[in-house]
Each structure stands twice: as C-alpha cells, then as structure tokens.
Hints:
The chain is 65% helix and 6% strand. Strands 1-2 form a two-stranded antiparallel sheet. By secondary structure, the chain is mainly alpha-helical.
Amino acid sequence: MHFRNQKKQAQDVFINDPIDTDKDGNALTFLDIVADDGDIIDDIELKLKSEQLYKYITQSLQPREQTILKMRYGLYGTRPLTQREIAKKLDISRSYVSRIEKKAVSQLRKKFDKDQNI
C-alpha cells in the first residue's frame, strides 16, 4: 500500500504503464507513443558512410571536382544546384559540369567498392 501511494505522489511515468486507450479500447503505453520505426543500426551505418564519403571527397578529388560535388549535392549544408546553375557560377559549360561530376562520382564509387572488399 505504501509503495502504491508513493508512486501516485511521485507522478512517475514508466515506459510500459498505460497512459491512454486507442479507438478500439486497447491500452496505449508511453513506449507506443515515442517508439521510433527507424532502425538504429541503419542510422549508425548511414552516419559512418557519410563520414567516410566526406573523407574520400577531400582526400581523393581535385578541388574543382570537390566544388562541383558540393554544389551539385548540397554538401556541407549548402543548397543543391542544377548543373546549369553550377555552370553559370563557374563560367563553364553544363556538359563540362556533367563530365566532371560523372568522373568524380565514379572515383568515389570505386573507392567505396575497394574499401568494402578489404
């Protein structure tokens, strides 16, 4: 009795305690409401691969290739641009932007594939 009374006074909410009911009358717990459908393993893997990508960009690509990829894909918190917008900013043709982008992406893909096979 004492412990029940203490629990009510503390107003603690435990993760599996029912806090409401759904439209069918089933109990809803705090866990049901805050549960995340995402998989933490996938989130961690994505973060690691993103860090690896940024490392490869700085280590493997020429400055112009880095600039074009940063602008094209909105890396480092920038807004992604079209090839035409990049070409105008860099005063080069859109097709040249496309060739540089394709070559840089290919280099990064090879680097990822090589490191995955090790």
